[in-house]
Each structure stands twice: as C-alpha cells, then as structure tokens.
Amino acid sequence: MRSKLAAERGVKSFEVQMNLALFDFDGTITTRDTYTKFVFSSTKLARLVIGACLLFPVIIFHKVGLVSAPKIRPLISRVAFMGVPEKQLDASAERYVSEYLPSVIRNDMLQKIAEHKENSDHVVVVSASVSPYLKVWCRNHEVDLICSELEVRNGRFTGAYLNGDCSNERKVERIKERIDLSLYSEIFAYGDSEEDYPMLNLAHTSFYRGELFEVASVE
Question: Which pLDDT tens digit goes with each residue over 150-167?
C-alpha cells in the first residue's frame, strides 16, 4: 500500500513506511517569508504598481491586523499572476529557487529533513505559499508537497487558487485528503506561526520555532 501522494507522483512504494514528517516552509524551513519576495521578483513593475493601487486599502488593513494573511494572499496572487503564461512563471520560479532560496534556507532544517529521509520517513512540505516555486524546491529535495495551488487554464495562470489558501485548518484538511494517516505509526510536524497550529496538533510530536510544542490533541 502506498500513500496517496506517492501514488499520484508514481514514486516508490511506502510499504515499509513508519513515520510521517510534515514541514511548514516559510519561517520554518526558511528564515523569512518567501511568498512576497517571489511575487515581487516574478511580476513586472507596471503590474506591481497597479496591484498596489488596487489593494492599498486591504494592505493597510492587513498591516494593522484587520485582514489576515490567509485573506490577503489570494488577492495578491490574483493581481500578480492572472493571465501570466505558465511557462513564463515557471521559468521565474526556477530562477528564484536556484538564485534566491538558498540564501534563506535554514541549514538545521535541511539536516532535519535529511534525518527523516535517512530514517525512511515520508517527508511532506505543507505550505500556504504558492505552487510554482515550491514544486521546484520540493522536486530538487525529493520531498512531497501540499500547498496553495495556482490554477492554470489554456497555458495561463488565472490567479485563482484551486483549493483555497493552504493555511490553518485547511492544512489539516489537505493533509487528510492526500495522505492516509493510518499508514503511519508516528507523525512529526514542524511550524513557526499560528497558521500551523492545526497541523501541529495533528501530529504526535511537534516543534514550534525549534522548540517542542505541547500538542492539544492527536486526531
């Protein structure tokens, strides 16, 4: 029997799989937010200016805590990526992963991922950040991915999310949709923000900003 993710990707069987390791990306594997940087690095200046004007009130509300990050990210993504050719954004993502991400990746977390892989654990990145660059990074590091997936139609991004912003309770929903948790004897989770709490509570052993997290419940 294989995990649903493994079956979809056509990767090796997980018949001897014992543990599952779930990693948030921004702030956990990295030292900072990478979503915003990707938006700025892959979007033309004119579109950024127009987008800033359109979203200015929402951005201000976000800065003062009246609009949450899970609410504003889909709006930013729609303005930044709507109509952009898939090949163009994928090329930007490849450059972003090779040129920028190495400067913000935490070496200790790379080591932790390597330890789980050496233990034959199933490693999955579960992130609210968007698919174009995360799928490249995860492919390069041979780990699976659950994230905010951008919709593509006729070779262009629509700017919409296929399954919503992958944060908070939606992280757990997506994990359960994609992975049969009954296959694993122990679940580990790593996160750094309140958006990760539901995922941390899903696991048997969780770490919040490098410290052991007191799990409220194990589902």
Answer: 999 999 999 999 999 999
> Does residue 170 register a pLDDT over 90?
yes
Using the CB atoms, write b or e for 153-179: b if 16+ within 10 Å. eeebbbbbbeeebbbbebbbebbeebb
pTM for the structure as a whole: 0.87
Domains and CATH numbers, the chain: 4-213 (3.40.50.1000)
Using alpha carbons only, what angle is made at residue 123 by residues 120 and 124, rounded to the nearest 5 degrees?
160
State the Rg of the chain over Cα: 17
Rounded Cα distance between 55 and 76, Å, is: 8
